[in-house]
Specification:
By secondary structure, the chain is α+β, with helices and mostly antiparallel strands. The chain has a single domain, classed as 4-Layer Sandwich (Double-stranded beta-helix). It contains ten helices and 16 strands. The chain has helices at about 20-25, 35-40, 55-60, 75-90, 160-170, 175, 195-200, 220-225, 235-250, 305, and strands at about 15-20, 65-70, 90-95, 100-105, 140-145, 150, 155-160, 180, 200, 205-210, 210-215, 250-255, 260-265, 270-275, 275, 285-295. The strands form five sheets. Strands 1, 2, 3, 4, 5, 13 and 16 form a seven-stranded mixed β-sheet that branches. A three-stranded antiparallel β-sheet has the order 12-7-14. A two-stranded antiparallel ribbon has the order 6-15. Helix 2 packs parallel to helix 4 (about 75-90). It is globular. It starts with 16 loop residues before the first strand and ends with a helix. Bound molecules: fe (ii) ion.
């Protein structure tokens, strides 16, 4: 029997914004103390008590995301401190790529190497985070320190609503969406060979005790098939084409501004980024990514034990 997921109730033309908790503003360290406070907060020390119940409710409900807009006049260290404090109240920061990972153009090309798209200025395509079948972060978060000179709009799409439309329009593709398909192994520390890629198989749609789990990375799936010397099945291409067209039509597009903290449920929300450009005289684009475990049931895993 195919479970029915409720469609999103929030208006889909703009992202949901919530106020920064007042207690967080009151506890903000002065600019000259912010670096030290940040270092402590990264270790879970000196975290002020704040109420994140509204944010947590929004993330676990049908909305699935929220943006908290901190004042742009706060220093980078103050913004990072506030970001860590909020995320600390939602779960545990995952350290796989570093607890805070700066998403910035490093002049790399993900099409000719295993470099993650997060180190390029290219459009990412719509996706959920983590290409590892054994690990799926509950929450993905982005703090905007600098939006860059041009481009780089963020995109969000609701996977539950997408699934409802897939069932109605193409019920024959539901079983394809529930089939585990290989995904390329690109996580640093994990062995990438044909057997590892075959075993790194993930369904696009599944569900567990918490509900829907949507995991989508078209690029890495098609590249896995190429590395395995297998043609992409026609029905899988049809599924991907439907999903991409649906998200092209329904995704919310918006520009993150300095101080914006976007937090999204990585099981029910799909995200992406349009291509961007930096320019002389304009601070280069820099977003700080974090993965949060333990909001539902994802758990930090030491890569050295899994490689
Ligand atoms: Fe991402």
């Amino acid at each position: 029997m195919i479970p029915i997921f409720p469609s999103s109730a929030h208006p889909a033309d703009r992202p949901v914004r919530l106020p920064v908790p007042h207690a967080l503003r009151k506890a903000l360290p002065s600019s000259d103390r912010a670096e030290a406070a940040l270092a402590q907060a990264m270790d879970g020390v000196g975290i002020p008590a704040i109420d994140v119940s509204r944010l947590a409710e929004t993330l676990s409900g049908s909305t699935g995301h929220a943006i908290l807009a901190a004042p742009s006049c706060w220093t980078d260290a103050q913004l990072r401190w506030a970001y860590v404090v909020i995320l600390h109240h939602l779960g545990d920061l995952n350290g796989r790529y570093g607890k805070l990972f700066d998403v910035a153009d490093r002049g790399l090309d993900h099409t000719t190497s295993n470099a993650p798209v997060s180190k390029t200025k290219a459009a990412t395509g719509m996706h959920t985070d983590s290409s590892d079948a054994g690990y799926n972060p509950d929450l993905v978060a982005l703090l905007c320190l600098q939006p860059g000179a041009s481009g780089g709009r963020s995109l969000l799409a609701d996977a539950q609503a997408l699934f409802d439309r897939l069932r109605l329009a193409h019920p024959e593709l539901v079983s394809v969406a529930r089939t585990p398909w290989p995904r390329d192994v690109v996580t640093p520390g994990l062995t990438s060979c044909s057997q590892a890629i075959e075993e790194n198989a993930i369904p696009v749609f599944s569900e567990d005790a918490h509900g829907l789990v949507f995991r989508y990375m078209r690029y890495w799936t098609e590249r896995a098939m190429a590395k395995l010397d297998r043609a992409v099945p026609e029905e899988l291409t049809r599924l991907f084409d439907f999903i991409d067209a649906d998200m092209e039509k329904h995704a919310v597009r918006f520009q993150l501004r300095r101080g914006d903290m976007l937090v999204a449920n990585n099981r029910t929300m799909v995200h992406g980024r349009e291509a961007f450009e930096n320019a002389a005289g304009c601070a280069p684009r820099c977003l700080v990514r974090a993965w949060v475990d333990g909001f539902l049931d994802s758990q930090s895993q030491a890569l050295s034990l899994r490689a």
